[in-house]
Amino acid sequence: MHKKRRKNRLSYYAKILFAISLTLLLYGFILNIRDNRKVLDPVDDVEIYSEDESTVTITTSDGSEVIPGDVVVSDGDKENQNTGTGTIPSPNNPNPNNDASSTSIEDSNQKLRLEIQNTYGVMVRYGEETNGYEVGGFTTTSIEDPNVVRDQLNHLKNTLDLYPKGLFTEIKNGGIPLSVYLIHHYSNQNITGVTDSSYTYATISIAAAHPFEESFYHESYHYIERYLFKRGASFTSWDTINPAGFTYGVVDQRLSYTYGLDANAPFVNDYAQSAATEDRASTFEYMMASSKASCLNKGTIVHTKATQMALTIDAVLNTVRPDVTEYWERYL
Predict the structure, then answer these.
(1) What is the DSSP-derived secondary structure letter of residue 66?
(2) Rounded to an integer, what distance in angstroms lies between the CA atom of residue 201 and that of residue 136?
(3) Angle between helices 276-288 and 301-316 (to 10 degrees)
(4) What kind of architecture, by CATH, is found in domain 47-329?
(5) Residue 54: per-residue pLDDT
(6) How many CB atoms lie within 10 A of CB 290?
(7) Would you tell me how many other CB atoms lie within 10 Å of the CB of residue 246?
(8) Domain locations in the chain?
(9) What pLDDT is stored for residue 15 in this prediction?
(10) What is the 8-class DSSP label of residue 245?
């Protein structure tokens, strides 16, 4: 009799445990569905962004030009000049400087590439190494002329030197290693550069057919911002800086500094109006430019945006110190 009662009690408790387990399993399934269906904002919801989430940002030459300012600010021995001698290629002539000394130039390029990789922690690919590279639905054409490769490598080295020492290594050690692909052009020849990144990798490709520095400044900010987001930073108040009623994706040329050189314009160019991420990357181009544009004067909307960006970078990156004026902060 006692054994029968004990057996009944055990059966009763087993049923209760089974019901609880089933309820928890069903609840977890519902939560998973809700999370998967939620549309994440890349700024506001960064803390729950998937580690596998990747994005491709494509920059074109249309409406994204940088207008030189009137004030040139020198930065000592940091000269952002092209030290190569190769001819800038055209789509119809990707190999303008083919000569008998190509072997020695290629050896020199290899040494320069290794110097860049060892100094800045950035992997560099060019020539045959980029054959067949596709990104964002576009194919690419490799650089065949070693002289042009040399020019691009020198551009890259001089440009990287403008950033705080150790910045790219810090981001690499933080889980997002960077590779830079030096290519001749994309299948859409208006494209200047592309950043393909996630929370575990990043590839920046730059077309030699366009000015190197502007392209790299823009794409490098996308890379830096990817790391800011991974570390939990956000720009939740960003939209409040813009004019009331403005919506990204609806371009009004009158709001762009490039339209009438109005210092009070809320955007540096038309491309900045396409998305908040492009707004910041385009603004960063102006922060890195060799001369100061009036839209960066204190009290302007663009200055407010640039200041918020600089403060956010200061707060996240250990290699960027608040008590040091970095190259991108010299106009602020």
Answers:
(1) P
(2) 16
(3) 90
(4) 3-Layer(aba) Sandwich (3.40)
(5) 80
(6) 15
(7) 14
(8) 1-38, 47-329
(9) 57
(10) T
Closest Cα to residue 109, out of 133, 134, 88, 83? 83
User: What does the DSSP 8-state code read for residue 240?
Assistant: G
Task: Name residues whose C-beta falls within 8 Å of residue 41's C-beta, 6 or more positions apart in sequence.
Answer: none
pLDDT, block means (10 residues), the chain with 332 residues: 48 54 44 32 34 76 61 41 38 47 88 98 98 96 97 98 98 98 96 97 97 97 98 96 97 96 98 97 98 98 98 97 96 97
Q: In the prediction, which pLDDT does 19 show? A: 55
pLDDT at position 69, please? 62
Q: What is the structure's pLDDT at 14?
A: 53
Instruction: List Cα–Cα distances, 234 to 100, 200, 322, in angstroms.
Output: 53, 19, 18
Q: CA-to-CA distance for 141 and 45, rounded, in angstroms?
A: 37
Matching residue, tokens 């920046």:
204
Closest to 62 (Cα-Cα) out of 188, 190, 251: 190
Q: How much is the pLDDT for 295?
A: 98
Burial class (CB in 10 A: 0-12, 13-18, 19+), 47: exposed
Predicted confidence at residue 59, as pLDDT, reads 87
Alpha carbon dihedral 139, 127, 191, 221, in 10-degree steps, equals 120
Between CA 266 and CA 245 the distance in angstroms is: 13
| Cβ atoms of residues 58 and 205 within 8 Å | no
Q: Are 203 and 196 in contact (CB under 8 A)?
A: yes
What SS3 class is residue 195? strand
